[in-house]
Amino acid sequence: MTGDTIAAIATAMSASGIGIIRISGDDSMEIISKVYRSKGGKKQIKEAESHKIHYGFIYDNDTMIDEVLVMIMKGPRSYTGEDTVEIDCHGGVLAMKKVLEAVIHAGARPAEPGEFTKRAFLNGRIDLSQAEAVIDVIQAKNEYALKSSLSQLKGSVLTSIKEIRSSILYHIAYIESALDDPEHISLDGYSEKLAQTVEEEKKKIRRLADSFDEGIRTVIVGKPNAGKSSLLNYLVGEEKAIVTDIAGTTRDVLEETIVLQGISLRMMDTAGIRATEDVVEKIGVERARAYAKDADLVLYVVDSSIPLDENDEEILEILRDKKAIILLNKSDLTPVVTKEMLEARTDMPVLAISARQEQGVELLEEQIKSMFFAGELSFNDEVYITNVRHKTALEEAYQSLTMVEKSIAMEMPEDFFSIDLMNAYEALGRIVGESVGEDLVNEIFSKFCTGK
């Protein structure tokens, strides 16, 4: 516990139906007892049962300020882990200020920005990654960012980091024990075992670091000249991909990150899939196949003006058991392939569009949104890194484990392994707040709004 009792307005300083004044600290119950009076003058509120709502009035000395609802939350079952009180008053700016002044006069001090969440962290209610997720939730500008931040708030990052740190700590302890007691603990053949563990943990760290600001991995596939690049250009809002009537123009993968319906997508336009003798185009086609197999979502663009062929059959086989949407493009032309024909062959959604004429793309946006919020689309096992501080720490841990690999390859003494393993362990600890200094903690929470 941090000792003194803090208070702040926890809602926006604007006219609204309800305003909330939050109090937290050892003297919360004494302070609310000084300013609150029940309608019927019943028992002291500080003696009331926790997690109950009470109706009454707030007074500053003998002056009634407002009619309120008061919620009592006794520690440790509260957001901060301390005795906490929330006063729900009328949402006028003046009313909220007057209620806060009464609470300050009764013995609380004004809270600093982020101090409630800082106390939750210091009292062990949440780890540092969860605390930072609080501000990410508040500042989320789209649905994807909100979902990512809420995932962190539930502890997804903490769980992943703890698993990696536990594995690293085991090897640090083993090396130290073996060096202290070589007669009973042997390091013969240990380097090979450690190398395998380091390789596995590096992959986990790389996946987490790469998830930073990534979005759903969305790959556009189709035969050459089906309209894939036109679709990408329309979604991005500018001419990113070269569009011509010459088949095979796209030779490599072109990446862009866009936001559709509040969902971040990492879009990849690939080479048209077909049999070809062109060496460069063949490499592009192989990459297109590989990207499609690893995608979270595939957009399969079909030229509705020409018949399906063996290349379409290959693409349909690649998409078996994948999350995919078939886009029946060039719907402004006379159709040879119809929506009904494709729906008879697959259970994937089929949408008729014209990328060049910018028709029907809103149907695609709605389909992606529907799949995302139905839980059909996700990535990286739903563990996302949205904070640059976290990514920096992950990169540092990755480099430290790379140094361990180099030391193993050079057959260095085992105490060299231990030094770099400890560096990786501490770098990961900074993400969840187990290896951070007071200055960093203060800097993080200073970015919060007052009342949070």
How are the secondary structure elements laid out?
Blueprint: E1 6-9, E2 16-24, H1 28-35, E3 36-38, E4 52-60, E5 63-73, E6 84-91, H2 93-105, E7 109-110, H3 115-122, H4 128-139, H5 143-153, H6 156-180, H7 190-210, E8 216-222, H8 228-236, E9 254-260, E10 263-269, H9 279-294, E11 297-303, H10 310-318, E12 324-329, H11 339-343, E13 350-352, H12 361-373, H13 388-409, H14 414-432, H15 438-445
Helix and strand succession? EEHEEEEHEHHHHHEHEEHEHEHEHHHH
Class derived from helix and strand content: alpha/beta
Query: Which spans of ≥5 residues are poorly predicted at pLDDT below 50?
Result: 137-142, 149-153, 239-251
Profile the largest sheet: 7 strands, mixed
Could you characterize the architecture of this molecule?
By secondary structure, the chain is α/β, with parallel strands linked by helices. 44% of the residues lie in helices and 18% in strands. It has 15 helices and 13 strands. The protein has helices at 28-35, 93-105, 115-122, 128-139, 143-153, 156-180, 190-210, 228-236, 279-294, 310-318, 339-343, 361-373, 388-409, 414-432, 438-445, and strands at residues 6-9, 16-24, 36-38, 52-60, 63-73, 84-91, 109-110, 216-222, 254-260, 263-269, 297-303, 324-329, 350-352.
